[in-house]
Amino acid sequence: MEKQTVQNLKDKDSVDAMFLVKEKNVGVGKNGRAFMVLQLGDNTGTIEGRLWDRVDELTREFELGDVIKVKGQVQLFQNRKQLIVHRLERIDPTQVNFEDFMPKASKDSEDMLVELLQMVRSMKNDHLRQLVLDTLEDPEIKPMVLRAPAAKSIHHAWIGGLLEHILSICRIMDFMGKHYPFLNRDLLLFGAIFHDIGKLWELSYENGISYTDRGRLIGHMQIACELVDKKASRILGFTEELRDICKHIILSHHGKLEYGSPKRPKFMEAMVIAMVDDFDSKVSTLKTILDNERASGEKWSRYNELFDRYFLLDDMNEKL
Amino acid sequence: MEKQTVQNLKDKDSVDAMFLVKEKNVGVGKNGRAFMVLQLGDNTGTIEGRLWDRVDELTREFELGDVIKVKGQVQLFQNRKQLIVHRLERIDPTQVNFEDFMPKASKDSEDMLVELLQMVRSMKNDHLRQLVLDTLEDPEIKPMVLRAPAAKSIHHAWIGGLLEHILSICRIMDFMGKHYPFLNRDLLLFGAIFHDIGKLWELSYENGISYTDRGRLIGHMQIACELVDKKASRILGFTEELRDICKHIILSHHGKLEYGSPKRPKFMEAMVIAMVDDFDSKVSTLKTILDNERASGEKWSRYNELFDRYFLLDDMNEKL
Amino acid sequence: MEKQTVQNLKDKDSVDAMFLVKEKNVGVGKNGRAFMVLQLGDNTGTIEGRLWDRVDELTREFELGDVIKVKGQVQLFQNRKQLIVHRLERIDPTQVNFEDFMPKASKDSEDMLVELLQMVRSMKNDHLRQLVLDTLEDPEIKPMVLRAPAAKSIHHAWIGGLLEHILSICRIMDFMGKHYPFLNRDLLLFGAIFHDIGKLWELSYENGISYTDRGRLIGHMQIACELVDKKASRILGFTEELRDICKHIILSHHGKLEYGSPKRPKFMEAMVIAMVDDFDSKVSTLKTILDNERASGEKWSRYNELFDRYFLLDDMNEKL
Amino acid sequence: MEKQTVQNLKDKDSVDAMFLVKEKNVGVGKNGRAFMVLQLGDNTGTIEGRLWDRVDELTREFELGDVIKVKGQVQLFQNRKQLIVHRLERIDPTQVNFEDFMPKASKDSEDMLVELLQMVRSMKNDHLRQLVLDTLEDPEIKPMVLRAPAAKSIHHAWIGGLLEHILSICRIMDFMGKHYPFLNRDLLLFGAIFHDIGKLWELSYENGISYTDRGRLIGHMQIACELVDKKASRILGFTEELRDICKHIILSHHGKLEYGSPKRPKFMEAMVIAMVDDFDSKVSTLKTILDNERASGEKWSRYNELFDRYFLLDDMNEKL
Amino acid sequence: MEKQTVQNLKDKDSVDAMFLVKEKNVGVGKNGRAFMVLQLGDNTGTIEGRLWDRVDELTREFELGDVIKVKGQVQLFQNRKQLIVHRLERIDPTQVNFEDFMPKASKDSEDMLVELLQMVRSMKNDHLRQLVLDTLEDPEIKPMVLRAPAAKSIHHAWIGGLLEHILSICRIMDFMGKHYPFLNRDLLLFGAIFHDIGKLWELSYENGISYTDRGRLIGHMQIACELVDKKASRILGFTEELRDICKHIILSHHGKLEYGSPKRPKFMEAMVIAMVDDFDSKVSTLKTILDNERASGEKWSRYNELFDRYFLLDDMNEKL
Amino acid sequence: MEKQTVQNLKDKDSVDAMFLVKEKNVGVGKNGRAFMVLQLGDNTGTIEGRLWDRVDELTREFELGDVIKVKGQVQLFQNRKQLIVHRLERIDPTQVNFEDFMPKASKDSEDMLVELLQMVRSMKNDHLRQLVLDTLEDPEIKPMVLRAPAAKSIHHAWIGGLLEHILSICRIMDFMGKHYPFLNRDLLLFGAIFHDIGKLWELSYENGISYTDRGRLIGHMQIACELVDKKASRILGFTEELRDICKHIILSHHGKLEYGSPKRPKFMEAMVIAMVDDFDSKVSTLKTILDNERASGEKWSRYNELFDRYFLLDDMNEKL
Fold it and tell me: Are C76 and C183 members of one domain?
């Protein structure tokens, strides 16, 4: 029998599977009885779970961030699947590989890193290349790079998402360096790799994705600048001016003050990095939204708040 | 002796050359004497001209849009060159090739069109390919495509600028179609070519670049939609639905209502076209600005109103 | 016995009447039982319906857009009427006149059209008058004009609403033409009639009011411009310049880019049309809101999101 | 010989006429000599005056706000008329009727007031009618009403301009009261007359139009509210509630907080007053702008900052 | 036994206590049975009450604004306390001191007023001091000052809150007058006391806090200006200019047009009053929010819409 | 004879004094002759200088940033003083104390620093106190603190201005710590001192005030964070968490993203620091503007672009 996943569950299915508890709320129903509302996830998606019996007892059995084994049944509620939980059991965390319960990049992280390092080695400026290599091959950092998501939600919000986003931008930069030969390719690649690297420490992704205290207090741009200082200080001849150029690229990559960049891009490469980052993030976000919406079988999406519009759900590759 | 052009004029040069009159104002000086302020252009740029003598007489000799032969001398005023006009003479317009007096794209228009048509021929959808070919090869339209600028000022504001902008976006789209394989390449190429094609009629570029009445009243997006209707109505099997998709791409390519698009992009390809158009226009605009500013020899640009910032003028390809 | 309508239903009434299904959702209650939430409408308004029994069975009996015969009872929930459905039965659509289930303009459409045509015949410019008459008397268009709403919701969102809105603006324009004699009355009347005429194709109003694909992709302004081209091309001597003036009025009638107009009004008549359209729409919208709110018997309305304020519900004609 | 006015002066005319000094600046020319720049006005417009000789001596002869007799000559500077002053002489202010030197409404103030009072007498609510009559017939206020402008510049900025604006709105309100019969006509007329009446004290218009200290510190809305209190306190049975309704109309007539209204319109009549005031002001402003621009003989206006656009200068009444 | 208050209620407590009814809604449950949702308040806070039995009967027993005696039990619903009401009984309003059921300032109102009057007596300008004293000691106004809240919700929204806010600002102004000696201390104190004094009439706080009709129609700034007129007219030598300065301070104290001030601050003291008012309000608001959020025991607050952010809940005085 | 300064120069004065050259432009006059426009400063202000003779020769004698000895005469041009330069001579920079030519704080820097250090020593948290002391007493930093301005223009733009701004805020914080006892005084003082300390390196103030490359590329907030890292790394027990709190205060002190803060204040002390910084800067800016404007003798200021208003110039301390 095929393994049951959030994605392949269907209306009226009997369920016997394990999920990560991403949200957990207990309520008192209008009839005076307690009930529980859960967000249950695995590596294919998230489903709402509802529990009506023995709530008082079961609520003490597990916490947010635990993996639980669930028996129950799927129902459709307003065209969305809901899992009515009949029984549940907490799995001992030491027996759990939490990554199995979070979505993953569609490509293999190790493969992506190999391709990325190849590109890095083609950088001409010794100092910049060294800075990037020392970072990506740092034994503490490398495993984080292989796993970190690019965001809490919205775009590339999955295991390996940051690396996928970095690699996508690097490939675009490789093209742009040829298309606009007046641009410095080394800086483009540096920016592609370092603009979001502070997210390795801004986000925590042990059980689900959340912000760290550092992330909330100082943010990924500040963290990345500190990383530049730390790594560059060990590279002979890495000037303060070059550090400032690197930091400027990081600090300006959101493009506008109101998007949280304390500096606007002040040279061409910084500007291109901000624009391509925005471009790849938007395409990835929209891809995720459209894939979700297409599941409904409608021609037009529901109103999308982020983009403030309805989307046409036709796949143009099939239509034309 | 080298031909005198706006670009190669230097302080204290004696001048004997021909220019297009792009602006013409007559003033009364504080000493009660009339003077004339001109903007004089050729295919390398524009210089301010000043005339102090025989103004009453000479002002009747020529009009805005004429080409005149000027004798005079170059002076520096606040680090900008100024041409003090001593004598001038109007050239019979029938003897003038006005294009010699406007800036041109850095590439040959015919070559660009050849490359563009090659790409068009690789489009898979017969209807779309036919629509684009019927347009670019229309004997009335083709010569306009070879010459039209992409804007009155700001970006690609030169003879052949529109074609240069179109070709640049087509190349980017060719890459994007491979990079994001879920995008329909035919629509990307259609959008690259048609999004601004209404500018052929929105702008007039006989003597200098200005807006036509049509351009001011209905704009290039409306004109392009009418072109789609006109051409598509002669292509067998070109459905109204496909027309509407084409028109949607045109109408939404400014990306936001406040930028003059009556529709926001509602599918992925329309969104990518709007973003890549914005991207290529910004890079081109900034390139022009930085090239101009670098002439000053300063490290930082003057305050730039369009981007609301000062730019670092270092060329990173030389610096790194 | 008086016919039961949404408007005249009262708390605790037993109901036996027919309604159009405007929304239909099935849910699973906290007790694990399915229930159904409906929006049920007739020509006097809309009421929420709730069904608790035999949901699985009945949900298959009818679809959104059907007319159903309902037996049940009215209850008050948070001061709003709710219809508890006990039994329901689908009516064969071929036996239904759907217009009986949508709100209507307060005036007779045929009468309004007669008055409108009378005004049109007083236009002095032969080309403009012909353009308008050829449109309103087009045997395909005329029946649409008699029935179309002016919007999906908000203002004049009822059968005949567009005509009511057009006629109201025409009367105001008739006055304005006298009040400001420097305005051209023909253009004012043209704008009053054509600014929203694209809505005939932008909206679908068979069972409820919704947007068409054309409406979403290219919008009513683009559609109206195409109508101008189609009709004007058959009128001898109708110049392209006059077409552009007509199209400009249409394209600029939302007044500002951020309201979806690709052009700002560039002559006085275009400006007045945009302002009067806004004025009549706002008055109509507010009238509808206040009439609804007054039903509550309160002195102040609930917070109104559209206008971002609370309204005083006193009727000043009664108060003073 | 026709009297010389700003309007009928032509290039190269010898001038011998009287003007109000609206601005006066003394400068030191680049040749070290002093010169004087004046704005000289009469009831037909304003012209720039320039004086090159005996500046030191003449500058002590007159002040801003004086009327002077000027001899000199007209010159064109950048298509605008300039008056080169050769001699000048101050006129004893006691011999001057300053109103002869300010633009006037195109209609006779007394006639306008008669029409206005007639409308007021048709108001049905005794208290409101009394309030308005007591104000307009107050022997201190009436002469101000006959003369006050509606603004410092922009719209109705001439002697009698406020009355002209009030009367225009009253006529529109008279129509609107019939067109939308649910509106209370008395409140519409009250709002038409009182919304800007504080301008009688906000603006000073003895020699030119300027703001008073009261105008700058508390503004015309606050002043009008105080007037309501003062007048209403002498009318038997004028309730505080009615006063508050009157004040609300005044305080909300700019429509939005950011336009300086401390309250948004909270009932229909207040909303209509704000919209019609905005409408009549915009039409009047645009009329003034277009009339000025048409003098240039161009087809398109210069860029207009207030409306952020270029205007088409064709008169549609002549064109169609 | 300790008196039961909203604050000291705990999960599963049996309740027998009196509360003010701040909101009252009756609904029909999904099982067809009616239920009632109440907001019940005392001087320590507000709790949601839910009633499941005998709803039809009990709903007629009491109204919004009544005090009721409740028997029931506390339950947690999504980490918030909820009171399940078993029995309830209306208390005869004549037997109720409603202030016992609204939150109060943490300081004694009489003490605060004594301190305030002491500061007022130190004002140097006789007219201003008299104006403030005549107001605060007015036998009609004084009792209102002792009780009024500063707002409906958000900041200082409790009995005595306005006085607490006024006194806090007065103390800050006392400091600022010394710190910036170029500021006029009398005006600072006047502004501290009068900027919000119109709230005495803008808000009603008999049973809960709500807006009065005057408050909604003309607002506290207009009301305060009328108070200045009323009181100043009885003080010999109080000039109209001083009145206008006082009114300007009141009218400009929201600092920006879009915050509802019809005038921007136009002298230093008016500016300082607007800024200090904003400062004290924000600190007080944030204090209230953080105190509430800290009850949850979390390190970070929930998303706060007013400030558009998450707050760190650490108390820095404990942490450092 | 009193020393001649920019401030005490009067119309028609003969001048023989030294000034710093803050701007230098050479133009060609309409008569074809060259002239020079200078901005000349000393520690009391700045005056425009104009030179008409021997421009070609004298322009080579000195550069921007030099101090020159000038002979010439004062003239009034549009109510502003202008210095007509007859002769000039460059002063050997090694003989110049440039600080004599820049405006200074009104208080002695050494005295201000003594007071500041006294406050710092009263901080309770050992780590924070040490961090601040190690910074202010760093032999490289201390002399910069004594001299740095707080901004390029606008507020505290003079020698010692940063220290004056810091001390002013510290005093306010000392008060606020008592007024709002729930605030942590140590963090308030830290924020007062460190929020702008990066300006020591962001600004250069050798000859005039300008931005450094570091300032433009990474800004004073980033620089200050690096300083925290550098100093804290040498203090035993200074946790990373405390560093992040310090950095958060720095990074959030502009209060809003659009003002260049990459983080919004997320705890009370950070919020208070942002508000008090804004408050002291605005008061100081406005004080400077009003002092300048009052020199004109007018009752109302010219239009002020920064604050978008006209200011009343009355000194309320004199008026009341």
Answer: no
Q: Which of A30-34, B307-311, C69-73, C111-115 is predicted least confidently? A: A30-34
pLDDT, one tens digit per residue, over D242-251 is 999 999 999 9
Domain with residue C81: its CATH number is: 2.40.50.140
Q: Are B17 and B70 in contact (CB under 8 A)?
A: yes
Question: Quick check: C183 and C272 in contact, CB under 8 A?
Answer: yes
Asked, for residue F307, whether it belongs to a domain, the answer is: no
- Could you list the mean pLDDT of each consecutive 10-residue stretch along chain A, which spans 320 residues? 84 90 70 75 86 79 86 78 90 84 84 97 98 98 94 81 96 98 98 97 84 96 98 97 98 96 97 98 93 81 91 94
The answer to whether residues B79 and B119 belong to one domain is: no
| Burial class for E64, CB neighbours closer than 10 Å (0-12, 13-18, 19+) | middle
Cβ proximity of E35 and E21 under 8 Å: no
Our count of domains for chain F comes to 2
Domain of residue B25: give its range. Answer: 14-99
Q: Which residues of E touch F272 (CB under 8 A)?
A: 283
State whether D56 and D125 are in the same domain: no
The pTM of the whole model exceeds 0.90: no
pLDDT at E31: 55
- Reported confidence tier of residue D152, pLDDT bands at 50, 70, 90: confident
Residues of A in contact with B272 (CB under 8 A): 283
In a domain, C250, yes or no: yes
| B contact chains, 3+ CB pairs < 8 A | A, C, D, F
pLDDT at C206 over 80: no
Cβ of E52 under 8 Å from any chain A Cβ?
Answer: yes
Contact call for F275 and E286, based on CB within 8 A: no
Instruction: Return the pLDDT at F10.
Output: 87
- Both D80 and D136 in one domain: the answer is no
- Give the residue from A164, A161, A170 showing the smallest Cα distance to A112: A164
pLDDT at C220 over 60: yes
**In the predicted model, what is the mean pLDDT of residues F33-41?**
81
Cross-chain residue pair D221–E258, CB shorter than 8 Å? no
CB contact at 8 A, A134 and A230: no
In this complex, the residue of F226, F262, F266 whose CB is nearest that of residue A260 is: F262
**Domain assignment present for A316:** no
Q: Compute the CA torsion angle B182, B186, B191, B193 (nearest 10 deg).
A: 140
Q: Is residue A95 part of a domain?
A: yes
Q: How confident is the model at residue B43 (pLDDT cuts 50, 70, 90)?
A: confident
From the CA of A240, how many Å to the nearest CA of chain F?
9
CB atoms within 10 A of CB A96: 16
Average pLDDT (B291-300) is 81
SS3 at position F203? strand
Query: Are B32 and B160 part of one and the same domain?
Result: no
Condensed to tens digits (0 to 9), the pLDDT of residues E35-89 reads 788 889 888 888 889 888 887 778 878 887 789 999 999 887 656 688 999 999 9
Q: Do chains F and C touch (3 or more CB pairs under 8 A)?
A: no
Q: Which of D78, D99, D120 is the last residue of a domain?
A: D99
Q: Which of D60, D77, D99 is the last residue of a domain?
A: D99
- Phi, psi angles (nearest 5°) of residue E102: -125, 145
Beta bridge partners of A104: A159
Instruction: Show the DSSP H helices in chain F as ranges.
Output: 55-58, 109-121, 126-136, 142-147, 161-179, 185-194, 199-202, 213-217, 219-232, 240-251, 268-294, 316-319
Alpha carbon distance C37, C26 (integer Å)? 6
CA–CA min distance C259, chain A (Å): 14
D279 and D137 both lie in a single domain? yes
Same-domain pairing of F70 and F133: no
Map residue A82 onto helix, strand or coil: strand
- Cα angle C99-C100-C102, degrees, rounded to a multiple of 5: 65
Is residue C147 located within the same domain as residue C217? yes
